[in-house]
Specification:
This is Endonuclease III. It catalyses: 2'-deoxyribonucleotide-(2'-deoxyribose 5'-phosphate)-2'-deoxyribonucleotide-DNA = a 3'-end 2'-deoxyribonucleotide-(2,3-dehydro-2,3-deoxyribose 5'-phosphate)-DNA + a 5'-end 5'-phospho-2'-deoxyribonucleoside-DNA + H(+). The chain folds into two domains: about 5-20 and about 135-210, Helix-hairpin-Helix base-excision DNA repair enzymes (C-terminal) (Endonuclease Iii, domain 2, Orthogonal Bundle); about 30-130, Endonuclease III, domain 1 (Orthogonal Bundle), CATH 1.10.340. The protein is about 60% helix and about 0% strand. The protein has helices spanning about 5-15, 30-40, 45-60, 60-65, 70-75, 85-100, 110, 120-130, 140-150, 160-170, 175-185, 205-210. Helix 2 runs antiparallel to helix 8 (about 120-130) and helix 9 packs across helix 10.
Length: about 220
């Protein structure tokens, strides 16, 4: 199978089985999504979704969050990984939004990565989810799954993987392909023991070709 054919197989499979794939973070507007994505770094979406309602209730806008004190915001984030840094990031992010962006969430990657707590991955998530821009956010799931399947070759960094993925996925599908790969990695192609027995991508997967299931399990 050529690389082009592999990509087409993956696209066809997900278009049929996950046509409406989307983020599992719960949000009502770009501000809420930005807060949720910052909190989600090295933390589960489930935990973030349990945490954000109280934050959004107390700080419903960037202006309100910019006025928050560390001591008042920290207790709402305590259960999230790295709560100290994320508390500082959220307050700093909100202050910069108010000072430099008139309280509005910018929709370009270069502008977003200026915000505290926002790296390239987060900026790609915001622009692709909110604005459906052809930006590929490469987290640990996307990096692992794309490498196992063979969508990326010898990509040793998230940026290298990102460049390959946006080269081969059609522009109009890149924002959706991120969700395909992350959800597949979260529930099927898991890190320690991928669930190849239930995976519909086996015919196109380089990992499976090298690690086929015993006949009794296939």
């Amino acid at each position: 199978m050529t690389r082009k054919e592999r990509y087409q197989f993956v696209i066809d499979y997900f278009e049929q089985h996950a046509p409406n794939a989307e983020t599992e973070l719960l949000y009502d507007n770009p501000y809420q999504l930005l807060v949720a994505v910052i909190l989600s770094a090295q933390c589960t979406d489930k935990r973030v979704n349990l945490t954000t309602p109280a934050i959004f209730h107390k700080y419903p806008t960037p202006a309100k969050l910019a006025e928050a004190s560390f001591d008042h915001l920290f207790p709402l984030i305590r259960s999230i990984s790295y709560p100290n840094n994320k508390t500082k990031h959220l307050i700093g992010m909100a202050k910069m939004l108010m000072e430099d962006f008139n309280g509005k969430i910018p929709m370009t990657v270069p502008e977003l990565i200026k915000l505290p707590g926002v790296g390239r991955k987060t900026a790609n998530v915001i622009t692709s989810v909110v604005d459906q821009q052809p930006n590929m956010a490469v987290d640990t799931h996307v990096f692992r799954v794309s490498g196992r399947i063979g969508l990326t070759l010898k990509a040793t960094t998230p940026l290298a993987a990102e460049k390959q993925l946006i080269k081969f996925f059609p522009n109009n599908l890149i924002h959706k392909a991120h969700h395909w790969l992350i959800l597949h990695g979260r529930y099927v192609c898991v890190a320690r023991k991928p669930k190849c027995g239930i995976c519909g991508l086996r015919p196109a997967c380089k990992y499976y070709q090298a690690h086929p299931l015993p006949a009794t399990e296939a």
